[in-house]
Amino acid sequence: MSQSMVRVEGLKKYFSTARGLLHAVDDVTMDIEKGHTVGIVGESGCGKSTLGRTIIHLLDKTDGKIFLEGEDISDVKGKDLKRVREQMQIIFQDPYSSIDPKKSIRDTVKEPLKVCGRYSKAEIEEKTDMLMDLVGIDERLKYSYPHELDGGRRQRVGIARALALDPKFVVCDEPVSALDVSIQAQVLNLLKKLQMDRNLTYMFVTHDMSVVRHISDEICVMYLGQVVEKCPSKELFKMPLHPYTKALLSAIPSVDIDHPNKREILKGELTSPINPKPGCRFAARCPFATDKCHEPQVQREVAPGHFVRCCRVEELG
Questions:
Q1: SS3 letters for the chain?
Q2: Other C-beta atoms within 10 Å of 210: how many?
Q3: Which pLDDT tens digit goes with each residue over 260-301?
């Protein structure tokens, strides 16, 4: 645990609905090493963003443990929660709706510094200038309002705000999905530079496999609230083991017209995340499912550092 920035054990987040409990995050166990980036991928609705928000206490967990540098922060409250939140921040997906339209860019970046109560007025002004320069916001724009900026600059404001209190761990919740491709590259390069300069630890939530490959050290593949595969990024693209992961990777467009990817088309209906039955939640769409797949599944280390939640993984090769 000494090498982990964040560790979660059996983390669960359920939401009450009229039909029962929606299992948004269900029994997730994972480590995120200091200075590393763990990518969280999966289709929409699989629980990626909910996992990140539960870890940083934007959502209350239903069950499980959360550790920050070995400290159990699962149930922190009051002043301890405020301290923890300063160390764990988030960059939101939508740079348009996540910034107050009534505040200038400078006031938006300045706000966390004022709220924490640790800085004098002079220190706040100095640190605000430093943060805006750090993320590449021109001085001429510091009194602009959000509607006067393009999406890339707005996201830079969101990054500056997230870094204002010098956090150790940052959840990047699809921070480039709302941006043009050329701007995406600029923001990704900025995030990687900031990570190197500040030794930041990231959880990078995305549905874009090319983006997650570019930025992540490790990748977790989620399906209906559960992590079905976790391993180093290069290994996942070289040797995916879970049938769902293989289907995800087969959907990546190939630039090699002579050797295009062989698409694996998933059939069957999605299992409901409301009161799901025991067993593999992918079984209804998996072409290799057997009766064993309807028994409770556990996450197993099938190779060094390679974890899979599938009872047939050895058989399938």
A1: CCCEEEEEEEEEEEEEECCEEEEEEEEEEEEEECCCEEEEECCCCCCHHHHHHHHCCCCCCCEEEEEECCEECCCCCHHHHHHHHHHEEEECCCCCCCCCCCCCHHHHHHHHHHHHCCCCHHHHHHHHHHHHHHCCCCHHHCCCCHHHCCHHHHHHHHHHHHHCCCCCEEEEECCCCCCCHHHHHHHHHHHHHHHHHHCCEEEEECCCHHHHHHHCCEEEEEECCEEEEEEEHHHHHHCCCCHHHHHHHHCCCCCCCCCCCCCCCCCCCCCCCECCCCCCCCHHHCCCCCHHHHCCCCCEEEECCEEECCCCHHHHC
A2: 10
A3: 677 777 888 888 999 999 899 999 999 898 999 999 999 999
Note the pLDDT tens digit of each residue in 112-133: 999 998 999 999 999 999 999 9
Q: At what angle do helices 105-116 and 151-163 cross, to 10 degrees?
A: 10
Cβ-proximal residues to 111 (8 Å cutoff; 6+ apart), any chain:
103, 161
Structure tokens at 280: 């593999």
